[in-house]
Structures are given as structure tokens and as C-alpha cells.
Amino acid sequence: MRTQPNIVGVHLVFEHSGQVLLQRRSRKSLFAPGSWHVPAGHLEEESAIACAVRESDEELGVEIDPQDLRLVHVLHYRDTAASTPRMQLFFRVLSYAGTPRICEPDRHTALAWHPYAALPSPLVDYTAVALTAIAVGRPFAAMGWAA
Q: Deepest in the core among 1, 28, 56, 115, taking most CB within 10 A?
């Protein structure tokens, strides 16, 4: 068996009174156009925590102290058998400075709080799996794998 590289995604889970903050992706987006998704980005030449801090600033204009992030879920995701698998890391944001706003209007068209019990549609498929798992305290899920 050979080693399989994975793309690493870093996702931010902002919660307030049983609700989670979601962004609607632009209809022009190559990935999941018009769908709701948590704030997220790909790991660059940085740690996962540094990526989360960077993405919160770039996408929402809020500052997060690295100590205020908790890894709450890992989703090992494969879209198709031919695609590069993805390790999706979901970090709960315990505290932040500023008010979340749309900072990339070319990428996101709406920002809203949604109850875990009534998530909007369309929602990115793996995001739905992860948020459902987070709501019940399950730290790991796999999606799109044959076994």
C-alpha cells in the first residue's frame, strides 16, 4: 500500500445560543455555488491554527487568539474515487474580537446564524455531516470512502 497525500481544509465553527454562523457561497464559485458553508480555507505553509486565525480575519474581519480555538471534529472526505482525499479540520471558536461581516463579497453573498436543528439548504454535503456530528459530540467521521 502506498502513501496517499491529502488536502487539508480548516473550518471555523462560530456558535451562539444553539446557532452556527454560515456563509452563502457566490453563485459564481467553482466549489458549491450558492451553497451555505462554515468559514473555511485550505492549509497553506502554516499550522492549522495559524490557518484558522488567518481565515477568520480574511473572510470575516474578526480576530481570534489561537488559545480560543478547539478542534471539535475531523472529517476524512473523498468526493470521488479519483479525487484527492481531504482531511477537514473543524475548530470551535470560543471567543473573538470584532463583528463578523462579509469581507470577500466576490466569494460570499450572505452571512447568517442558523440553528443546528434547522440548517439551511443547500448546505455543502460534508459540512452537513460535520455539523451534525459536532452537535452530538462525535469527533470523527469519514465520508465518500468504500470501506
A: 56
For residue 71, give the DSSP letter: E
Q: Does residue 122 have a cis peptide bond before it, meaning omega lies within 30 degrees of 0?
A: yes
Residue 118 is placed in which grid cell? 434547522
pLDDT (average), residues 40-46: 96
Whole-number mean pLDDT of the chain? Answer: 95
Residue-level pLDDT at 1: 74
Phi, psi of 97 (to 5 degrees): -110, 130
Give mean pLDDT, residues 133-146.
Answer: 95
* Alpha helices per DSSP H over the chain: 48-55, 125-135
Give the strand pairing for 19-25 and 36-37: antiparallel
Distances (CA, A) of 82 to 4, 92, 103, 126: 12, 31, 34, 17
